[in-house]
Structure formats: C-alpha cells, structure tokens
Amino acid sequence: MRAVRIHQYGGVDTLKLDTIDKPSINDDDVLIQVNAAAINPVDWKIREGYLQAFIPYELPVTLGWDVAGIVTEVGADVTDIKVGDEVFSRPAIHRDGSYAEFIAVKAEEVAIKSPKLDFSEAAALPLAGITAWQCLVDVADVQPGQRVLVHAGAGGVGHLAIQIAKAKGAVVVATASASNQALLKELGADQAVDYSKAPLAEQIDAVDIVLDTMGGEIQQNSWALLKDNGILVSVVDQPDESVAKANNARSAFVFIEPSRRILEELNTLVDEDKLRPIIEHRFTLETIAEAHLQSQSGRTRGKIVVDVN
Ligand SMILES: NC(=O)c1ccc[n+]([C@@H]2O[C@H](COP(=O)([O-])OP(=O)(O)OC[C@H]3O[C@@H](n4cnc5c(N)ncnc54)[C@H](OP(=O)(O)O)[C@@H]3O)[C@@H](O)[C@H]2O)c1
C-alpha cells in the first residue's frame, strides 16, 4: 500500500511516499481502508521532532491521526464493528497513522460515522471534535447560559468548539482576524471578536469558560477575562495553577485521548444538524508537504483533508 512516512525528523522534505506492506491487526483491532485523512498541527510538530520526549517513535512512522473509511478486516475479539462498516476515528497517536491506504486501529477507538457525513467530513471531525468536547463538556462541564470564549474560532478545534458550545446552550464569544469575522457568525458565535482591533479586555465582557487554543501571551491575557471561579482550559500550554488561584479561577490542560463515546456524541450533534466540519483545504498523499505548510501557516480555516482513496 502507499503510505506517507518520515524516516527522520525535520522539514517537509522528510515526508516520503513509500510503498509498504498493509498493516497486520491485533485481536482487538480493525483494519480500515482509508478514504480520507485529516491534517492537524500535531502532525507537523511530530514531524519536526518537537514531541520526541513525549512520544518516542521508532522511525519510520506513518503520520496522520484522523481517519474515515471502510472496515475490511476485524480482529478475533471484535464483536461490535463488522467488515463493510463506514467508520471514523482518532486513533492512538503512538501507532502508525492515517496517511496511508490502510490503517490498523483498536476497535474501541472507532465509531460508525453518521450517514449525514461524507468520508471527508468524517475525517475532519475526530481529533479536533474530541478535543473540543473533552475541554468544554468533560472538563469545563459547560452549562446552558454560561459564557464561553473560544480563541481561534476559525481554526480546526475552534470552529467545532463554537458549534458544540452553542449546542450545549452556551453564549459563545469567539476570536479571529478581520477576514474570518463572518465565518464566526455563520458558525453560530453570539459575538465575533477581531483580536487585531483592540485588546480583548476592551471588547469582551467576563466569561465562565475560556478555551485556550493559542497559549503564551493569549493565555496570560485571558485570566482577566474570566468571572470568579471561571475555568481556563488549554490544549497548548499547561496553565500555571498559582496564576489561576491568584485570579480566583480554575485551570486545566487537556491532551486528547481516543474516545468512541465522544465520536458518538459528535455523531448525535451531526444528526441534529448542530455540528458540521468545514473543509477549506484539500490535498492528496502526493501533496502532503503542501498540506503541512498550510497547517504551519497558522491561517487554516476549518480543516485540511487528505483524499486517499
Ligand atoms: N492538547 C491537545 O490534545 C490538542 C488537540 C488539538 C489541537 N491542539 C493544539 O491546539 C492548537 C490549535 O489547533 P487547531 O487545529 O485549531 O489549529 P489551526 O486549525 O491551525 O488554527 C488556525 C487558526 O488559528 C487562528 N489564529 C491564529 N492566530 C490567532 C490569534 N492570535 N487569535 C485568534 N485566532 C488566531 C487563525 O485564524 P485567523 O487567520 O483569523 O487569525 C486560524 O483560523 C494547535 O497548537 C494544536 O497543536 C492540541
């Protein structure tokens, strides 16, 4: 099969389109024929070697941890997924990924996709959608009427977070550059904020929850935007607990875990027409390097999808 792998860490020229054997499966795995994969910033962070201490890969490794496709084999212990099922997944990150014609994934990390999603849309949803759900629902326990600030509302995580928070009845404030203000509104944000216009503290009334997808200075400036006992959840920089306390706030850091349960929750929102991924950029296995450069630009709207089969 064709697979895009790295044999060493580095720039986009380390991405090699190889011909390799199809993966073999364990008893608790399924084999998925990949129809579409998606790109996430973690892909190029791993390619560059930034996460070596955290995830020690034996190279070469196939990158890509979003997938949608059709099950072609099931392991001996798998009873709830069958050959022919149309599925999607954010598979475990320590195994070979989805820039390939086939991927082996633990069955418990796979869900049957909503029929309302085509394969590209189904591939765009898992990593960013599970992340947004884990932050807003599992950790922050968002409640109807609460005010939620989504930083980078036009990005992969942010554009899904806006829709999930709205589906939970929250009042959503989201940030983006001037060119993405209309998109924030289309996604359902109650207030679209242009971060380049003025400091956020001058534009936003206090919120109950901050979803921090940016870290650094943006995280530091977010404490002042929280109500007493509000929570800042970051997916980028571990918040400093003492700074949170000094601001009468709570904090958390989330690193996504695969979850069939959350994929099924996302399916439900899709079925209710409350959630839809936006795909603004499409590539193929042959043009993955361009896809990485797009992601690294920091200007991606919605998701980047890789059409595989
Ligand atoms: N911990 C985890 O489990 C986890 C999971 C998923 C993602 N992440 C991390 O979360 C971050 C975001 O991921 P992503 O997939 O959403 O990235 P992304 O899709 O690449 O985000 C791009 C978006 O960021 C926006 N942006 C850039 N600068 C901004 C600023 N100063 N203020 C507000 N928005 C800004 C851009 O909008 P404009 O062009 O309008 O500025 C663009 O739409 C990445 O660092 C990723 O690695 C972590």
UniProtKB/TrEMBL annotation:
Keyword Oxidoreductase: yes
Family matches, as Gene3D superfamilies: Medium-chain alcohol dehydrogenases, catalytic domain, NAD(P)-binding Rossmann-like Domain
Matches recorded under InterPro entries: ADH-like_N, ER, GroES-like_sf, NAD(P)-bd_dom_sf, Quin_OxRdtase/zeta-crystal_CS, YIM1/Zinc_Alcohol_DH_Fams
CDD domains in UniProt: MDR_like_2
SMART domains: PKS_ER
Keyword Acetylation annotated: no
Ranges for domain Enoyl reductase (ER): 10-306
Keywords, in A-Z order: Oxidoreductase
PANTHER family: ALCOHOL DEHYDROGENASE RELATED (PTHR11695), RETICULON-4-INTERACTING PROTEIN 1, MITOCHONDRIAL (PTHR11695:SF294)
Protein name (record): NADP-dependent oxidoreductase
Organism: Vibrio ulleungensis
